[in-house]
Amino acid sequence: MSETRVFAAPDVWGSGVCILFELQSSGFTMSKNIFVGSLAWATTNESLERHFAQYGTVTSAKVITDRETGRSKGFGFVEMETGGDEAIDALNGSDLDGRQIVVNEARPREPRRGGGGGGGRY
User: Fold this and answer.
1) Nearest of 65, 70, 71, 62 to residue 36 by alpha carbon
2) Which end of the chain is less crowded, N or C, counting CB atoms within 10 A of the terminal residue's CB?
3) Domain locations in the chain as residue ranges
């Protein structure tokens, strides 16, 4: 079955031009971004990739680390070209490096709220 979706790319350059494009998904597989939580401190990008590769093609695997210490924050993301749904079903609750991991489809990142501006008095 063929499905056509229309997407709008936002005006990121301030030109006033918004780009529309179509994506036809007949036979086209979109990659799936997967959240992986409760990772052991010892889990590496490579071990995360190996754990998911048994279910399909892994495009990328990244353990998120603290900028200052370089230590794992205990979660990561895996992007899979194929087998993403199967990996989520099979690996949620599985053991990786001695920890029971949480695996689910990653949600889109929430836009950050503009804070700042303490407005100190002079």
Assistant:
1) 62
2) C
3) 29-105
Place of tokens 């301030």: 14
CA–CA separation, 63 vs 54, rounded Å? 18
Amino acid found at 108: P
* SS3 of residue 80 by DSSP: strand
Q: Which of 66, 61, 74 is nearest to 100 (CA)?
A: 74
pTM beyond 0.85: the answer is no
Residues 6 or more apart whose Cβ sits within 8 Å of residue 9: 18, 19, 20, 21
Q: Look up residue 114 and give its amino acid.
A: G
Query: What CA–CA distance (Å, rounded) separates 88 from 93?
Result: 10
Specify the CATH number for 29-105; select among 3.90.550.10, 3.40.50.300, 3.20.20.80, 3.30.70.330.
Answer: 3.30.70.330
